[in-house]
Every structure is written in C-alpha cells, then in structure tokens.
Amino acid sequence: MSVACIVVAAGRGERLGEGRPKAFVDIGGRPLVWHALRAASAAARVTHVVVVAPDGMEDDPALAGAAAVVPGGSTRQHSVANGLAALPADTEAVLVHDAARCLAPPELFDAVAADVLAGHNAVIPGLPVVDTLKVVDAAGLVTATPDRAALRAVQTPQGFGRGVLERAHAAAVERGDVDAPDDGVLVERLGLPVHVVAGHADAFKVTRPQDLLLAAAVLARRAATV
Q: How far apart are CA 127 and CA 82, in angstroms?
C-alpha cells in the first residue's frame, strides 16, 4: 500500500505568543515544521508528504522537500481536507501529523503506518495519563474522577485507510463539525473502531513558551547521542 503523510502547519499558535504562525517558530535554528517534515520524510513507510501551510506561506524555504504544499483552511478539518485533495490517486493509507508535534520520531510514523497496513482503518498513538483527571461542571464542582488506567493522551501522526478518512471528513462537513480536535474523533463519529498504539515521549505538542524550552532540550539530547 502507498502511504502518504499530511503535515498540518496552518495553525496560528496564539498561545505560544511569538507573533507568527506556530509552525514557523524556530527551535534549534529551524522552524517546527522543518523538523516535522524531516521526520515524516525519514519514515521508511512514507512515500509522499504534503504540507498544509498558512495562506501566503506556501513558498517558505522551510517547506522545501515536501512533495506538495497547499494552503490551509479556516478550521483544522478544512486544512486536512485540503491536504487530502492533494494526495496522489494511488494513495491507500494516510498519516495526518500536526507540525506542533515537531519532534515525533520517524519510527512513530512507521509504527502507525504498519498498524494501518495490518488492517486497522484508524490508528492513533497515545501515552498513559499520569495526572489524576477530574470532570468539572459549569459551577466548578467535580462530578467524576475517571480511572486514569483507561485513559490515553493522544498524539499524532494518526493513520487511516484513505477511504475511511475521506468518509469521515465528508460526514464532518455535512454535520457542520468544525471543532473536532483530531481526525480520530471524526472516525469515531462515524461509529467505526479506532485502534490505539504506543505513543512516544518526544511527540509532545508545542503549545506554550515552556514547550519550546523542552523541545530545545530534546534536540540537545539527540545531538549529544549522535
């Protein structure tokens, strides 16, 4: 099966406070999206990489090496749909990866792709939750404490059979479903099973300024072990 990856880099990243799109903020002298694109391209099972970039930034040098670059949409769902439309006709499996998880290693892409190729139509990586979580109502009162043994903190890349992902996005458009946090949720809303595989500690999401410090530390650790 032909496996393609859509790297989603069109978000504004306002919580990061850098005054520019998050995917184009530097760590280690290179933008987040540069690191994400290199990881996707280095995965053994990925043969084609499409980047979804902010409108007007499609020619940014950080995106060199992508097979195609397309503009993002008004929502994450719209951006991924734009990436889907740019995939080669023979693509059978699709990985969707957030550029904000810029240090996810190539082996995580390969592990997710392998699970799709083994027959799972929707595959997401996740890590066990270490914090105690509470369900809180509008008044600030705790209504439940979920058993964290059954919880996972979900990451990307997420993998899908192409037909399933296209169906999920078409259904989202019909529902006006513009607030889904990831593509796994869209497949869940079709009523289809989603398989979870082991995530990776380096696939954390860069969201706040302190995450940039963590990302820089991870890069330094990698450089020290080369």
A: 29
Peptide bond into 157 cis (omega under 30): yes
CA-based nearest residue to 101, from 155, 53, 65: 155
CA 88 to chain centre: 20
**Full-model pTM:** 0.95
Residue (of 40, 20, 42) closest to 31 by Cα position: 20
Q: Give tens-digit pLDDT for 58-92.
A: 999 999 999 999 999 989 999 999 999 999 999 99
R_g of the chain, CA atoms, integer Å: 17
C-beta separation of 196 from 125 below 8 A: yes
2 torsion bin: left (phi>0), alpha (psi -120 to 50), beta (else): beta
